[in-house]
């Protein structure tokens, strides 16, 4: 089992920060995927009076799957103690005095060594940092960054650190400059590390972070999340009011807070006094009265002066929301009895306002001050509540109190507000909100022996998916089954509206021997889905425990409507291991039984497949999404799958050729491509069946240069059509050979001219044609040495040009090596009729560069036929 190490800079046994860690760790842990260790930060934060204090009964407050832990040996670091941390905060952070910085650096280096030693001893593969940027202890933060960089590089872990800031300098008493002033020169700023992904609680915090560190690349919003479930009186909490002396019929206001001046509990006491003449109301303050005894005494005195002392209950510390400990009440127990949650806090103190979310999730209305970030988190997101503008009115006004009273007493309005808030809360901070992001960025660990991840993009594939997954499950190696520990399936749901996801999860549950992961890609398009799956698999493959750093790992692409042969994966693996190529390309075929009674269509398909078999064996071919494998390191070296966009009818659309473009990038970067002819995929013929008009006219993917995916599944399903006429068969073949030849005979040597010196390639082209192609390729590459940014343009255009210039010669060689039925080149576009022969090459260039109208793309079939 791998290890997740969490560290909270809060130095509190069960604070809101720790609770959020537990929620995150619970999700990441899944089915016991990680052993979870938590450092509460006693040896980090100086103002909680716990520095170096041994743990006592804190473990009883945490789930039994959490191991309380800390970095060993910190008490032995010379000069590192509570007094030093306090001095650094005062002298360096608040007053910009550099005198201690040399000592900070020396101590941070010692701490970093001890952090690494602890992680090495445990075998840590994932780290969660809570509130590490807040500069309470910049020495420890520096040490943590140093340890992360060295440990991550040594173990090749990728982004193994989830760094989340609940509080930041501008959210925590900025007026007092407790943590210095912008640009916070003493605070270790977030950095672009290959090992860290940052998270802010909301968009405003993310934006402010980027103002501070404009080039920070990896930062997302990960809100606090809550279980949206009505808090109810039950057997556990039925005596809550009785135990605290609150009458059963009294209106109960709940304030969940630390009892310190910044929380402004005095406003709640004033509100209670204003409600006293119209409501039998009580105020329950859930907080530790011992943290700031002077503030507790002040509030008690205020309540006495306002005549409501007997109605203010200081109930002590409650266990956090949704926790349940024997003999203790929780925040949710309080909310089961409360009529209203109040949150009349300081303007510049709060960063999120968890009590508001807790109230919303529990079905309790709330009233709040308009603190600095209220609108960013709640007010502008559709939540409804009485709001006191504390920049105008320091204490509750009569109008505010009237609005609160109405919300408590008017059952119709109360129900309407609760329902509206709950709907918004479920969408914005329900449990599922964080799950997708966490699953994408910190996916479950991979089996130690895994060598391949099969990425399967899916969109509404309920009709085919079970069979496709079965063929992936039943993979063979020789005469026996392929070891399921060697591979996994990553299914990428691309916004399916049918039962696709349910079928995938049911299959996974029924076949526990094969790891099947289901992730979601919200941006529509197979290119986006394929990229998401590849990134998911690549990230996880870095975290396999005990992996030999020299062992290759492979990302494999499959199509959700195609069935793979039993030895598909084993043959791909063997081809990659033997050749050490960057990419291995499969063989593809159609089931001939599907084309019974359609001999003309079958003949056109077979001629294309015969051509492909010859050229793939020479050049390796290019990856098709239906089946290829790529070495993970080669994938990452070229930046992975890249999604290009085109304009169609005034809107940006995904360009469909991500698989071919990716192959071009890898080959152009020097990555060899190999062909695995015994790794076979059966193509689903539905595109031919149900888009036959487009197939015949070469418009199966679009027109005018727009190559996009479109859904060709009929509603209801159609059966295979009749055979092609002779004219249709001729047109279909013309488009097939025009698409095939530039891609599969010209593009490989355009990318790798040295192929024209290989003996088999020279034998295919013939010495004279090989030499002429080599000279012309050199001329065109020199002419186009400043190229477009997109491979589809950088290489597609010159491939078209070379085809038009050499079509007669190349088709002659195909007839020689594949068969006379390959025939002769299709007619040239009509625009060349009036071009003088001596200027043919010149006008070919103009024609192939014509991207405005897409004439050349239309002529060449716009992406393939068979």
TrEMBL record:
Residues 240-414 form the Glycosyl transferase family domain. Keywords: Transferase. Residues 453-615 form the Glycosyltransferase 2-like domain. It comes from the Bacteria. InterPro entries: Glyco_trans_1, Glyco_trans_2-like, Glycosyltransf_2, Nucleotide-diphossugar_trans. The keyword Transmembrane helix does not apply. Signal peptide: none annotated. Transmembrane segments: none annotated. Gene3D superfamilies: Glycogen Phosphorylase B, Spore Coat Polysaccharide Biosynthesis Protein SpsA, Chain A. This is GT2 family glycosyltransferase/glycosyltransferase involved in cell wall biosynthesis.
